[in-house]
């Protein structure tokens, strides 16, 4: 199973906002830090705000921050909010056309695997995966460019 880019970015946005603490961060800042599309992050931030994970502040000095403590943001809940399709195989979709669906044992195996996958996410909160502000220390870059975060244990 592969998570969508949307879910990946959602986790990254939450981690970045969490590392910033009370400081409002912007979509532009976050996009530059991760070297990803602002347009895509805007969709992610809007969804996370509507879902109650982020608090957005509009205006020139606006931005976003976590809407609740990181300990209260369950990763399984975030995955369920951001992933649109958990059907691992065709027979788990509403439009199933598989001719052996009535007797096949694969769906129960796939559901068991998916439940185990989600159970792992359910055991963790954003606090468990958050980086510290120091981990997001931005290295000096030419012309004021923001560089990607300096992550601990990178490449190990």
From TrEMBL:
<dbReference type="InterPro" id="IPR036390">
    <property type="entry name" value="WH_DNA-bd_sf"/>
</dbReference>
<dbReference type="Pfam" id="PF02082">
    <property type="entry name" value="Rrf2"/>
</dbReference>
<keyword id="KW-0238">DNA-binding</keyword>
<dbReference type="InterPro" id="IPR000944">
    <property type="entry name" value="Tscrpt_reg_Rrf2"/>
</dbReference>
<protein>
    <submittedName>
        <fullName>Rrf2 family transcriptional regulator</fullName>
    </submittedName>
</protein>
<dbReference type="InterPro" id="IPR036388">
    <property type="entry name" value="WH-like_DNA-bd_sf"/>
</dbReference>
């Amino acid at each position: 199973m592969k998570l969508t880019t949307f879910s990946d970015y959602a986790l990254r946005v939450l981690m970045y906002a969490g590392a910033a603490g009370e400081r409002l961060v912007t979509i532009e800042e976050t996009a530059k830090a991760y070297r990803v599309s602002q347009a895509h992050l805007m969709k992610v931030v809007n969804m996370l705000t509507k879902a109650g994970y982020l608090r957005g502040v509009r205006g020139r000095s606006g931005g976003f921050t976590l809407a609740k403590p990181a300990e209260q943001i369950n990763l399984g809940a975030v995955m369920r909010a951001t992933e649109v399709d958990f059907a691992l195989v065709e027979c788990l979709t509403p439009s199933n056309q598989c001719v052996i669906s009535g007797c096949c044992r694969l769906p129960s195996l796939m559901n068991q695997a998916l439940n185990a996958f989600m159970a792992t996410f359910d055991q963790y909160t954003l606090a468990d995966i958050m980086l510290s502000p120091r981990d997001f220390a931005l290295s000096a870059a030419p012309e004021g460019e923001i560089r990607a975060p300096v992550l601990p244990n990178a490449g190990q």
